[in-house]
Each structure stands twice: as C-alpha cells, then as structure tokens.
Specification:
This protein is an alpha/beta fold. The chain has 13 helices and 19 strands.
C-alpha cells in the first residue's frame, strides 16, 4: 500500500501500538541501552493533545501520560544553540548562541567532542535524521564528521518542507553527498529513513538515534491528508500548524513501533522535547509568558517527556519537577553508555551538564546545578538569563517579534491573549511560585536581584574570544557572498564549499 491512505493507516496503527506497549515492564538487560532523542522544532508548550484537546497527538499523549512529563526542561530561546547544548553538553554561551544563517562560515566548535562521537567510543551505532544547523561550510562540520555513522536531512536552519529549497538552493543530504529525493514532504522521507534504519539495525549492538524534526518550523506547510483530519481549526494558520504537529507525532510513533517490532524498546530510553518555545505568530505556549526568541518561560521552558523500557515503573504517569537543561543529556547518556563524559582540553570549555538519571529515576527532585545559565550577553542588547534556586533573572528587555510578550491562548495565533510587561531593565521572578512570570520582584527584592546579577556577571570574566567562539552577534559571523553562486554552478545543492 502506498500514497496518502498508507500514511493514515500507519497513523492509526502506530497509535494502537504505542497504547498497547506502554504497559510493558522493563526487563533485565546486559547490553548497553539504546538512546533516542527527538527534537520537535518550534513546538509550543501547549501544542500537544494532553494539554490541548484540539490537537491530535495520540503517540505523544501515550508516551507522555505513560512515561514522565518533564515540567522544568530548559533549552535556548531558538534553534541552533539548543542543538549545540545537547550535542556538546555545554551552556549555550559556551558553545554558541547564534542561529547560523545560510552562507556564513562558522559552526559548532570543532574542539568539542560531540555526543555521537562519545557514544561511538562505547560501541554505539549512531544515526541522525532531520535538521542539522551546526555548520556546513567545511566537511569537518558535517554530521558524519562529528560522530554520526549515517545522516539524512538538511544542513541549514530551515527550508521549504515540500521541495527542500532554501536560499535558492536545494538543502537535502544523505551521509556525504546531496540527496536527490527533494520534492517529497520532508517528514515523509524522515519516517522512511528511521523505519529502514531500525529494520536494518544489528540488535546485538546498542544504537543512538538523534531525530531533530523540521516540523513545526515555518514555513507552515502540511500535506492534504493531514489537513483533512482536522475540522475544528479556528483559522488557517492554526489548521496547518495542527496538522504539522500530528505529522511529528506520526513520525515519532513510527520509531516506537519499529523498536517494539525489533524487540528493542525494553532496553531504550526515549526523550522528546521542543528545541524552544512556540514561535510568535505560530505556536501556543499557554499558560507561559513569551515565545521563541525571548528568555521568558514561553521561550526557554520546553514541552518535554521521557519514556522507554528503561524508565522505572514507579516513575510512569508522573510529572518530574526537577530542573533539567538540554546540556544535561550529554553526561547522562555518556554515563548510561559507560563512557567518560569529560571533554576538557584546549580551545573549549569543559562540559557544563550534569547527570540527571537521579531525577529521572526518582532518587531526587533537585538539580545538581547551583546555577542554570539560559543565556549570557549575546547581541547588542546584552540579553541573558539564569536560574538560581527558586529564582530566575532575565537580563535586559526581551525582543518582541510579532507578539512575543503575550500570554498566548490555546488557539493562538487565531486569537490574542493579554500583553505582558517587558523587563525594565531586568526582571526577577520566583519561578517556582510564579511560573507564569506575572510578579516581577526586581524592585521589591533588591538583595536577591543583586545576588543573581553578581552570579550572572561572573561569566564576564571568561575570555570573550572563546565565548560564542568569538562571534557575539550573528552579523559578526563571516559571510561568503560567493557561496550561493558557486554552489548553484556546481549542482544547485547546499554542501561544503570552502575545503
């Protein structure tokens, strides 16, 4: 069976499989665990069925409600740095805080050992399917040069979902060469690739799958068969967005189905997370303040949950309130694999993340971090944020692209929520008692503000030449104006062009 009908049958079949298998108990295993990490791009905090009944996500719902929802999972306020934190284990400003534009000559620090390279040291097969956004101007920055055995997806930060074109060039890549399958909805290719990868995997060997989906990043585009499952949308933009979330749900469910079919699920830990909050004019972050592009909770507190046979039974169906940052998965996964997470050395900051298995397993609900650095002094506004104890400091007024300082309703962007005040110049919140960031304590608690500002400014002693790799604004990253003409003349695909 092929075509749209096959895709919808898979949607329903996967739903039943996930619902059926969640009740399985983790079995004793003597093999290193399989690890799956799914990033959903620009996914709003409320844009999932278990928080919003208008969205159809049966696979996500089953994984979350029968696993553990990570209520305090933090990422950067936009795409590339969140990926860099996961893959290097560093705070964003110790990796980079820029969203690398096409044609620019930079990438994630080559002195840092990425997570897949660490896992390969432990004997893992390592695979990536989806969005890279960690550099491409030289071959050394490509996924297969950073530890992945295989990769299918695109190299820049965004593209047309239907034809895989960005900046006038096709951006579609498999392993070490351009992929000619552009013209198919990108998530369909990703679904095919993860199915094939799992089917062909040697189950005597542990594997790591990194699945950074392009959905639900703009442009908002979805195939008709997914648009047709919704008849309750309140406006066109929301209709397309709902369909795109359901596609992401379907691809993730396909992974779960394949792992069950191959007998691998009981020895797997799966993490699903947004890479940042829902984008302004796109996703709903209800009930949080702000959106992608801000350090308010709506920009950096991600929708996230864990499941898999390795999750202890007593943690299933529970919310986890312990603070976790994307950088923490690096040492957590390394420890699970039995490899040292230390990556100290010249030309790089040491790993910042902490092992969070004690939080996932219910041994504690307290982060091992004294301070979680959400961002530090990037761009002309010197904007940043950190969390220390129960308090969160937001430094400088936040950019308000579209209506990013709004409390978005569940059907956003079809209707508008109340506006919220900006920082003047800084904000202080008790983020445990006031998760909606409604009560700014900057003026009423000057001693706490002073303490957090002093903590924040400690990072100013670090060498500017190494923070953000020396590029403190996106405009400071070198642009090769000849890149597009050169690549157009050599086949019309994005690929390394400066070797």
């Amino acid at each position: 069976m092929d075509g749209p009908s096959w895709r919808l049958v898979l949607f329903m079949t996967t739903t039943l499989l996930v619902a059926h298998y969640h009740a399985g108990h983790a079995q004793p295993v003597h093999q290193k665990p399989n690890i799956v990490f799914v990033y959903v791009d620009d996914w709003g905090f409320a844009d999932v069925g278990f928080r919003n009944p208008a969205i159809k996500t049966p696979n996500f719902d089953s994984l979350a409600t029968n696993g553990s929802v990570l209520q305090r999972h933090y990422v950067f306020k936009y795409c590339s740095p969140s990926r860099a934190s996961l893959l290097t284990g560093r705070w964003p400003h110790h990796a980079h805080q820029w969203n690398l534009p096409p044609g620019h000559m930079a990438g994630t620090n080559l002195n840092m050992t990425m997570l897949p390279a660490k896992l390969k040291q432990a004997g893992y097969a390592t695979h990536m399917v989806g969005k890279w956004h960690q550099g491409l101007f030289q071959k050394a920055y490509l996924p297969t040069s950073r530890g992945f055995d295989t990769m299918t997806g695109f190299l820049n930060g965004g593209e047309n979902h239907m034809d895989e074109i960005t900046g006038g060039l096709v951006d579609f890549w498999t392993n070490g060469a351009p992929d000619s399958r552009n013209g198919t909805y990108d998530a369909y290719v990703y679904r095919y690739e993860v199915t094939k990868m799992i089917e062909n995997h040697d189950t005597t060997k542990p594997f790591f799958l990194y699945l950074p989906l392009h959905n639900v990043h703009t442009p908002l585009q979805a195939p008709p068969e997914w648009l047709n499952i919704y008849d309750n949308s309140t406006c066109k933009a929301r209709h397309t967005y709902q369909a795109m979330v359901s596609v992401a749900d379907n691809v993730t469910g396909t992974v779960v189905e394949g792992l069950h079919r191959r007998g691998m699920w009981e020895n797997t830990l799966m993490v699903v997370s947004a890479d940042n909050g829902g984008a302004p004019c796109s996703g709903s972050n209800f009930p949080l303040k702000g959106s992608k592009g801000t350090f308010f909770e709506g920009g950096v507190r991600s929708l996230a949950f864990v499941n898999g046979g390795l999750l202890p039974d007593h943690m299933r169906g529970k919310d986890i309130d312990g603070f976790i940052h994307a950088a923490d998965w690096y040492p957590t996964f390394c420890k699970m694999a039995g490899v040292d997470s230390d990556d100290s050395g010249p030309g790089r900051y040491p790993v910042d993340g902490k092992d969070v298995w004690p939080i996932l397993s219910g041994q504690t609900n307290t982060t091992a971090h004294e301070t979680i650095v959400l961002g530090f002094n990037f761009s002309a506004s010197d904007s940043g944020a950190l969390i220390k104890g129960d308090y969160k400091l937001v430094v400088a007024p936040q950019s308000s692209s579209c209506d990013g300082l709004m409390y978005s309703p569940l059907d956003y962007p079809c209707s508008q929520g109340p506006k919220a005040p900006n920082c003047d110049p800084n904000c202080l919140y008790n983020i445990v008692k006031d998760p909606r960031e409604e009560n700014d304590l900057a003026k009423s608690e000057p001693d706490i503000l002073t303490d957090l500002m002093a903590e924040y400014m400690k990072y100013s002693a670090e060498p500017q030449s190494t923070r953000d790799q020396g590029f403190h604004t996106e405009d400071s990253i070198p642009l090769d104006k000849d890149a597009v003409p050169k690549l157009r003349a050599s086949g019309g695909y994005w690929r390394p062009w400066r070797d």
